[in-house]
């Protein structure tokens, strides 16, 4: 790992944060325009979700439910190559391994070990929830070309408040502020977003 030496006399760090918390139905789904916290809305710059996107997000939703059934938080992710083939899948395994065992981290590591840089650039990660900063930076370092997420961090934060769940120990930042040169789309809305919300509700009702 390369480390940079930064002069403390020259740098002032300003954090513009979002106080937000962190994949089955056949109805029509489209882009939700109320994603980011503090009223910052950049959804108009994103392309709308396609039927293909929704198909893969439903697979993420199934993986998220698998995680829930295993006693973990409902997060699931897949990698899809340029031939529209699902080449890797992962679900949350925090309760089995440790707090870093997010599915996006596992897929980023898999991609780094099994795909060339060119193949990674032509791969899209579909995931049930917008990346946390840890997963976003892993995605960026591995240079995976695309990201499509089902729900945003802001949406999850609002749901957790509704469920009476305490805040996460970190601040969540929009993935666009962390990942460069990636095609990013999300979130969805309609029945699909309600399905993932209900999975999170079921998880927290158990605790």
UniProtKB/TrEMBL annotation:
Pfam families: MafB19-deam. InterPro entries: CMP_dCMP_dom (IPR002125), Cytidine_deaminase-like (IPR016193), MafB19-deam (IPR058535). Coiled coil: none annotated. PROSITE patterns: CYT_DCMP_DEAMINASES_2, PROKAR_LIPOPROTEIN. One of its GO terms (biological process) is tRNA wobble adenosine to inosine editing. CDD domains: nucleoside_deaminase (cd01285). Transmembrane segments: none annotated. One of its GO terms (molecular function) is metal ion binding. It comes from the Bacteria. Residues 51-167 form the CMP/dCMP-type deaminase domain. This is CMP/dCMP deaminase. It comes from Psychroflexus gondwanensis ACAM 44.
């Amino acid at each position: 790992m390369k480390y940079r030496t930064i002069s403390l006399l020259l740098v002032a760090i300003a954090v513009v944060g979002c106080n937000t918390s962190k994949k089955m139905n056949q109805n029509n789904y489209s882009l939700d325009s109320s994603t980011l916290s503090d009223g910052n809305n950049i959804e108009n710059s994103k392309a709308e979700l396609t039927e293909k996107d929704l198909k893969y997000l439903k697979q993420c939703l199934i993986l998220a439910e698998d995680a829930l059934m295993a006693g973990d938080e409902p997060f699931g992710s897949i990698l899809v190559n340029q031939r529209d083939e699902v080449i890797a899948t992962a679900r949350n395994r925090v309760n089995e391994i440790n707090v870093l065992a997010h599915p996006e981290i596992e897929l980023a590591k898999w991609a780094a070990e099994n795909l060339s840089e060119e193949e990674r650039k032509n791969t899209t990660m579909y995931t049930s929830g917008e990346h946390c900063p840890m997963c976003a930076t892993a995605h960026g370092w591995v240079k995976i070309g695309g990201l499509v997420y089902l729900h945003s961090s802001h949406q999850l934060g609002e749901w957790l408040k509704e469920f009476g769940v305490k805040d996460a120990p970190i601040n969540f930042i929009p993935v666009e502020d962390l990942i460069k040169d990636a095609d990013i789309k999300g979130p969805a809305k309609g029945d699909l977003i309600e399905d993932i919300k209900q999975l999170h509700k079921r998880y927290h009702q158990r605790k």
